[in-house]
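Re: that chain you flagged

S.,

Sorry for the slow reply, it's been a week of failed gels. I finally had a moment to sit down with the sequence you sent. For the record, here it is as I used it:
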Amino acid sequence: MRKIKMKIKKPTKKMHGQASAELMVYIAFFMLIFVVFLLFMLSDFNTDISRRQFIYTKATADQVGDYAAFAIAAGPGFSANFSIPTHISGKEYAIRFVSSGWMYIDINDDRRGLTSYAYPLGFANFSLGCSPSSQCPQNSQRKYTAVDGALYEETKISPAKGWIFFNHTRDSFGEWIEVQ
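Prediction finished late last night. Pasting the structure tokens below so you have them in one place:
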């Protein structure tokens, strides 16, 4: 029987370089796929956050709008506190009532700045604001006061306490809704 001797060649430096280059190409390919997948997931996550914030803002506007409509339908002499959320998606917000019959919910977002959601209340014949005979509460800020003791054109409320107050009154100024 014959013995066959095989000589095993040692890998050359050229072969080591080729193997490491192939390994680097594989790693780069899978890293690229991972980064693209991660960016896709993050963009979808941010879209989902914006969508949820819009839904919560709309639900809060619907809730406060229903309370205002209830105060209108109840007639003069009605006053009540209604509970509302203190935050929307973890962000502080403010509610602006404008005497033209619109309500705005303003959310201050660090990434996007100030975001406003407009909601029609549907009654422009009522004046929304603080009573001309009383002072506005501490948690509201007055803007644009009208001349000759008329009601305020815009009332801004920060719902940090978790409630909102509606008062339907009729006096010498006419019929109006006080919001605190």
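What I noticed first: Residues 44-179 form one domain.

Talk soon,
D.
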